[in-house]
Design a protein that fits this description.
Layout lengths: L8 H12 L6 E5 L6 H13 L17 E4 L7 H11 L9 E5 L7 H12 L5 E7 L7 H5 L2 E4 L5 H10 L5 H11 L3 H9 L1 H19 L17 H19 L12 H5 L5 H19 L4 H14 L1
Parallel strand pairs: 1-4, 1-5, 2-3, 3-4
Helix pairs in contact: 1-2, 3-4, 6-7, 7-8, 9-10, 10-12, 12-13
Length: 311
């Protein structure tokens, strides 16, 4: 097996077979939600391509190689970064048969950057292997998609995450079950919940704030400060969407699908119509889109709060 891994065995087997059968593509797109192991698998795959004769487990979180280039960014990836890769791709590998490029959060690459990359995918050097990683195909050009071999990564089954937290992290059965359910199939999220108390506190505060915004709504900007830490805003929206989905499940008599199982009695008390939740969810998606487009942060949050407060 490519790497000792929880979940997504089928994706790993497919990559392993690509290597064994010498059926490698010049371009790959690893597609799946955040936290299901796409980047870990990409580095493991790269290490096998770059050092195929090593018998020990090559993959490490800090794995580096002179023929491996990695681009990761929480913000949009600029055209200039892609152009640097294009120039570098013309140089032959230093010590390996291949050069491997990994671009994480590829859906954050600007359209001009994706267009610049097309030529590299259309006429790749024989030694070049490109691994694109994305949680969504929505912002990726169809021409990029058509020139990449798509490897789909599924959400990790809750039971597998729960067992991992108990056996590998030493958590109690109760906490393992709660964190596995809250994680909604993301191992990265489950491990953060298990090891970062502030992350769990942020979940609790998010539910509290959205409860007030939706049910009280007497002063729209009362909790504005909570939203002003840009480094936490995506986590806040992630927790908010999970909370809102739980209310929908309760409204439709589907409590077995609830993520925040430790909050189930609180969720049951909510008296929010599904139509209203859809409007709030759309508002969250809209503000996330604006933030990706680098619209003024404070103005985007204020408009969001006005919209939520007026719903």
């Amino acid at each position: 097996m490519l790497i000792d891994f929880v979940g997504n065995k089928q994706a790993l087997i497919e990559l392993e077979n690509n290597i064994k059968n010498d059926e490698l593509s010049h371009g790959y797109l690893f597609l799946g939600r955040e936290g299901v192991g796409k980047f870990t698998a990409a580095k493991a795959f790269a290490s096998r391509l770059l050092e195929p004769d090593r018998k020990d487990l090559i993959y490490r979180q800090d794995y580096q190689h002179q023929d491996l280039r990695i681009i990761r960014s929480e913000d949009s990836i600029k055209k200039s970064q892609i152009e640097d890769l294009i120039k570098d791709s013309k140089l032959k590998p230093f010590s390996s048969k291949y050069k491997v490029y990994i671009i994480d959060n590829f859906d954050e690459v600007t359209i001009s950057g994706q267009n610049a990359m097309l030529k590299m995918l259309e006429e790749p050097e024989d030694y070049l292997k490109i691994i694109l990683i994305s949680s969504s195909a929505e912002n990726i050009l169809p021409t990029i998609m058509s020139r990449s071999r798509i490897i789909k990564f599924r959400d990790i089954p809750v039971k597998q995450i729960e067992d991992f937290l108990k056996t590998r992290e030493g958590l109690s059965e109760k906490n393992s079950k709660i964190f596995a359910r809250i994680s909604s199939g993301s191992m990265k999220k489950a491990l953060r919940l298990a090891n970062d108390p502030e992350y769990l506190q942020l979940r609790d505060k998010t539910i509290e704030v959205f409860d007030k915004l939706i049910n009280i709504g007497d002063y729209t900007f009362r909790d504005k400060e909570f939203f002003m830490d840009e480094s936490k805003i995506l986590d806040i929206f992630d927790f908010a969407m999970s909370y809102l989905k739980d209310i929908v499940y309760i409204n439709n008599s589907m409590p077995e699908y609830i993520s925040n199982i430790d909050k189930i009695e609180f969720v049951k008390k909510q008296n929010i119509a599904t139509e209203k939740i859809i409007e709030i969810s759309e508002a969250i998606l809209q503000v996330k889109k604006l933030l990706r487009e680098n619209v003024n942060y404070e103005l985007s949050i204020e408009n969001f709060l006005i919209r939520i407060g007026g719903i």
